[in-house]
């Protein structure tokens, strides 16, 4: 069972990035998946989640309207499209798998993290 997060990088303010969380060893489609982010010396902050079934989504207020989470069933992955990026979006981004098909914040697995830097 492994989660691989990728897609991070450096962009200017207003730019876009797409993060991907790919699973191996299990079907990611059975579970709710979330994205979190963390800056040095602070706790991990919730960003977004997607549940199974109807693929309902939820976003933190700080990213609502700018980020979009979606499933890529063909790749057994969940993507996070990030638009209109701001310097305050700079963080290490982690994906996480919930133990349930509906997001319950009971995380069973974490990806390894991917760095996103927004700077001019």
Describe the structure.
The mean pLDDT is 95. 33% of the residues are buried. Helix content is 0%, strand content 50%. The chain is mostly beta strands. A hairpin with an 8-residue loop joins β9 (91-98) and β10 (107-110). The strands form two sheets. Strands 2, 4, 5, 6, 9, 10 and 11 form a seven-stranded mixed beta sheet that branches. A four-stranded antiparallel beta sheet has the order 1-3-8-7, with no helix packed on it.
Which keywords apply here?
120 residues, mainly beta, four-stranded antiparallel beta sheet, 0% helix
What structural class is derived from the secondary structure elements? mainly beta
The oligomerization state is single chain
Based on Cα principal axes, name the global outline: globular
Spatial gap, N to C terminus: 38 Å
Strand content: over 45%
Instruction: List low-pLDDT spans.
Output: none
Rg estimate, integer Å: 13 Å
Strand tally is: 11
How many H/I helical runs? Answer: 0
Q: Quote the average pLDDT.
A: 95
Report the biggest beta sheet as strand number plus sense, adding barrel if it closes: 7 strands, mixed
SSE ordering: EEEEEEEEEEE
Helix residue percentage: under 10%
Break the fold down into its secondary structure elements and pairings.
Elements: E1 2-6, E2 9-11, E3 17-24, E4 33-38, E5 45-50, E6 57-59, E7 67-72, E8 77-82, E9 91-98, E10 107-110, E11 114-118
Brief characterization of the structure:
By secondary structure, the protein is mainly beta. The protein contains no helices and eleven strands.
């Amino acid at each position: 069972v492994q989660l691989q997060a990728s897609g991070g990088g450096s962009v200017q303010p207003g730019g876009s990035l797409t993060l991907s969380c790919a699973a191996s060893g299990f079907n990611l489609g059975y579970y709710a998946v979330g994205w979190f982010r963390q800056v040095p010396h602070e706790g991990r902050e919730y960003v977004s989640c997607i549940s199974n079934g109807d693929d309902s989504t939820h976003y933190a207020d700080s990213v609502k309207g700018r980020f979009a989470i979606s499933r890529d069933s063909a790749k057994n992955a969940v993507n996070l499209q990030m638009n209109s990026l701001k310097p305050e979006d700079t963080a290490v981004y982690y994906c996480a798998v919930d133990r349930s098909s509906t997001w319950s914040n009971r995380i069973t697995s974490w990806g390894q993290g991917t760095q996103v830097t927004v700077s001019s």
